[in-house]
Amino acid sequence: MVQEHSHKSQASYKSVRKEGRRNTRLGSILENKSQVLLQDSDPGVSGRDMAADDQNQQGAGSREWEQEDWQERESRNQLKKVSGLGELQDVTEVEYRRVRLEKVVLVGIWSSRDSSQSQAEESLRELAALAQTAGAQVMEGVLQHRFKPDPATYIGKGKAGELAAIVAATQADTIIVDADLPPSQRRALEDVTKVKVVDRTAVILDIFAQHATSREGKAQVELAQLEYMLPRLRGWGAALSRQAGGQAAGVNGGIGSRGPGETQLELDRRVIRTRMARLRKQIARMAPARDIKRGSRRRNSLPTVAVVGYTNAGKSSLINRLTNSHELVENALFATLDTAVRQSKTADSRKFMYVDTVGFVRRLPTQLIEAFKSTLEEVAQASLIVHVVDISYPDPFSQIDAVNKVLADVPGVEGIPTLMVFNKVDRVDNTTRQRIENLAPDAFFVSAATGEGIDRLRHAVQAGLPRPNVHVDAVIPYSQGSLISQIRQFGSLDSADYMDRGVHLVADVDDRLAARIISCAENSGQEENPGGSGQTEAVQ
């Protein structure tokens, strides 16, 4: 009986492989999507009409579920290949690719109840970009349409066998799954395919590890990696059973040394937990330095503009254009991890700061959100948020949703004014631009590469900054040069006349500077004459 069942399984597997070879040429999924989208009127399903008739007596909800179940069974006939994943144009060659590139095969699944085929393809393309940024060469990418992931091998045992054949044909080293894969599914898939299997989260963590430069950034990434690794530790053979007690300690080991002892796996977990505790303390010790920097900006009344957006949306390039700076910008995913602050000036010479934040991504690992919470706090301290979107992305509004979901978990962000900015308009045609302009009429459309729309955006940013609320008319002694300088930097200066006893300034300043001006005028023997609500006059 076992042999007969085995022969039938092999025959079925061969027929599936033969059918798959006829219908899954590279690129077919994009050229003819009708091969993937299953239609109710498909003539190939006439043999199932009687079964469908038997179900017509059930309710409409039951019929829909059975139809989905039927589509699920039919779609398991083959893995659908996605073309062009190894030829992405938007990912740069980076320094750390001097080593031999890992050859990878990408795997994803989708169900019509959760998403569409086009969304699944776009997610796989994003995974390909992530893999290339991490230093891998994408050999192949396949999608499977199924109702839900297989609890054992994610794609099912038969499809895992097909995947093993693809891996062997492409000589791939690694399989990357477009999901957060539980340890049991990863191990089962490795057992079938005989190569390393990682998930989307592992790839993102690897990119963060390569791009982190500051001590705090490196510590945050390492903590996130250890949190991800801890439940995924696996022991093999003797390594799993090595113990520090029991018979290994001998009969004369003394009290406390006998018994089952501690396995090597448990020791590894204890080491990781100890390291995680140290990293948390290390990150906590760095918090005062961040607070000092933020406090310095607050004391100097420096408004801040937080630039947020999806990874590789062009945030750093846009800040370069807005500030007329020439900082090195890398065309890669997660090129900016450590918060960068750039200074700028308004048209009336008031200083403010642009804060360049880490890019977001769909399904950003929870470990990273927690680890980079301190970085995201910069957004909550901002006077204005500039949300940058890549208009050339096939579905830019999905990126907007992904960013908004992360920001929704950051306390203090709600209520901060936000400017929506669609970048890279030089990469789309007029039809695409017009369609998005109709959907987002209040947004700004710019190109950091060509400079289009930058002046209008710069004016809107400056107009959105908080303005000084106290009008002063005072003579500041020349001995108070630092105060004069601060009024010029942080206030809105209307006029400055140089007199014998000092500089006669007419300006709008904040409460802090106004108090210093009044004190300076009093200490200089000048008379203070309030000129009405919100106005200070100290002119002799």
Automatic annotation (TrEMBL):
GO CC term (a single one): cytoplasm
Location, primary (coarse class): cytoplasm
Compartment(s) of residence: Cytoplasm
A GO molecular function held by the record: ribosome binding
Domain of life of the native organism: Bacteria
Keywords: Cytoplasm, GTP-binding, Magnesium, Metal-binding, Nucleotide-binding
Name the record gives this protein: GTPase HflX
Organism listed in the record: Scardovia inopinata F0304
